[in-house]
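debug: dumping io for the single-chain case to check the tokenizer round-trip. Nothing else runs in this session.
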Amino acid sequence: MAGSVFLLLLAGTLLCGLLFHTVSHNEAGDRTHTRRPNFIIILADDIGWGDLGANQQAGQSTSQTPHLDLMAQQGMRLTDFHSPASTCSPSRAALLTGRHGLRNGVTHNFAVGSVGGLPLSETTLAEILHQGGYYTAMIGKWHLGHNGPYSPTNRGFDYYLGIPYSNDMGCTDLPGYDLPSCPPCYPGPQILHNRERGQPFLLYVALAHMHVPLSPPSYAPHPSEGGVYAASLREMDGLVGAIKNASDASDKENTLIWFTGDNGPWEQKCQYAGSVGPFLGKWQTSRGGGSAKRTTWEGGHRVPTVSYWPGRVPANSTSSALLSGLDIFPTLLSLAGVNPPSDRRYDGIDATDVLLHGKETGNEFLFHPNSGAAGKYGDLQTVRLGRHKAFYITGAAEACGGSKGTQELHDPPMIFDLSGDKGEETPLDPTTEEYKEVDERVRRWREALLYDIATDQSVSTADYATDQSAAPCCDPRHTACRCLTLG
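debug: decoded output
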């Protein structure tokens, strides 16, 4: 984690340079010319919906996220926003391609020794924006393939500095502790030369927080302040604040910042896991097991999300539009005036009207894929339709204490009404007219999407083979990976 803090601080330095030259270049030109916006995507790891102070109800514990709370006050808080999957690699692949894992091929996590990654047949958001004239940079956790052509600089990013996968994987000694100092990695000449061009930019910051191991500042947190997790959350919030401050000081009227998460908290880690808020998955937890990360219960995929763009995104606004990380891809391309490749099918929607015009026109439905707790990887086992949510398969990830729930098939599906049952405790009675109407609509949407994927000629297949020679930068003489080894 000490290395991840260095990476995120560097993100602020890089951002300052990008913004400075973008602004100075454009101020020297015609100020009436409409500039294309800059984009900053900040993706937190294993963060809970309830970790965001602005999502907490009155009377709850003190907020540990003052910078994000301020960003929500000055922008828009999206309360019904979902990660595309509830584990790392599938969620990130969907965000960068705008396609479900059953289309882009990434249905579960890549390993330390993975020889492949996000299939090379897939086109990323960074590639499209780069081809459209954007400068693209990434800082932080990749987890979409680190071997050869799968690294970020081969997938559309002009610049990359980060870690290849989760911070508990690969070369560590005692995870998160006693890591040797990392040689400074200064921005290379390509960064300095590119600044002169005054291009709009995409900066993708994939935080290592709040994934374990947690490594808060060296001072011991006071017990009343919430312990190690709270201290780490405050540290993460400070990093987000540093990025926002750099943007605000330079080009805030032309920069969209979008903060969200890759999935919910890792409940198995007990006091080192975040809060799901009211989304407790009670039906499952009453039968054993956890209902957050790696599951399709709300705690696994409903994530804290804030959109900030002064003068464009309405300040102090809240939207309950049904949105997903799949929607980031088409929304940013729309705002940039760039079209995606026409030879493939996509799953996200353009959320511009939600962000800029206060409309509630989100997704009519969302599909939640299995990410490891029950069933086959990638299966679209749960469907969200309006306020209703239908489960065809239920199962649990390992909970704190080690309990696991058994997989259960539901045909007809088990349906909850989230408007009055956020904790997913009591399913609808299958004999009611409400249930029958929702069941019919859910089946129709599910069958339509499965048919669409089955007839999609652009479906990719990921190579999940492993070979330990593909593990990056592991030198048995050292206890940690070096920061200059990834291309």
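debug: round-trip ok. The radius of gyration is 22 Å.
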